[in-house]
Amino acid sequence: MIPRSTRTFGARSKRDGAKRRARIDSRRSPRSCRRFRSGLAVVVDRLSPVFGVELHQAQTQEQWESALSSNQRAQLRQSRNFAERIGPLSLRAAGDAQALEFFEKLTALHSAYWQSRGKPGAFATPFARAFHREIITSQTGPGRVELLELSAGEQVLGYLYNFEYGDRTYSYQSGFAYGDDNRHRPGLLAHALAIERARSRGMRVYDFLAGDAPYKARLGRELGQMVWCRGQRNRTLLRFERAAHALYDRFRSARSP
After folding, report:
1. 46, 109, 112, 254: which has the fewest C-beta neighbours closer than 10 Å?
2. For all residues of the chain together, what is the average pLDDT?
3. Any idea where the domains of the chain sit in the sequence?
4. Is residue 17 over pLDDT 60?
5. What is the pLDDT of residues 74-98, one digit of tens each?
């Protein structure tokens, strides 16, 4: 539970100029945080770039692929050719009767990948799994869940868990059956096909959401920032806390190479 003296906000901030500020404090908070002030002191905890593909600018899949780096285009061709040795590639959306089945299979692949790296993954707790099952089976609002299965012939290569809202597709989570051969890149293939699918459905943006995972920058471009900020009441103890954090940040910056 968040103390009454502190409120937390997450918001997107449009990129301000060509260069993204790496660090920011409450005295230079983004507009998306400043509008929450209402007499509160705003503390920015974290910034994260948001990458995506603006589908209305790359009007065909060929235009999007041509904008990728030569190395990324070569990897995409190589991965597509490698997978098609197994069988034709397809990306299939779950119907209502299949949605939970796709989710359980995605969860198993996702968890196996992250646990092999010593991390729990996004669906590690019973609460998290129950929460997402509820979202998937109770689609009543303006947005919707889209669960996609990537396969080559009869062999399933993985799953994407996306959201759609308005004219945007949001790439939320995934689970893939990885192999030892470096030509096997199911994630790259799944996103390439999902981008094509989003365009065919009239979406304007394929949004990779916040995070600086390398594949997001390789497949898209920076669209803005996600900002995590807290609104704190102007109390003495909290002022001391903010001053201590500011002093620590300056000390850390001075020691950075």
Report:
1. 254
2. 84
3. 6-51+225-255, 56-203
4. no
5. 999 999 999 999 999 999 999 989 9
pTM of the predicted model over 0.85? no
Between CA 23 and CA 217 the distance in angstroms is 19
Range 56-203: architecture per CATH: 3-Layer(aba) Sandwich (3.40)
Distance CA 214, CA 224 (A): 16
Helix 99-115 with 126-137: angle, nearest 10 deg = 150
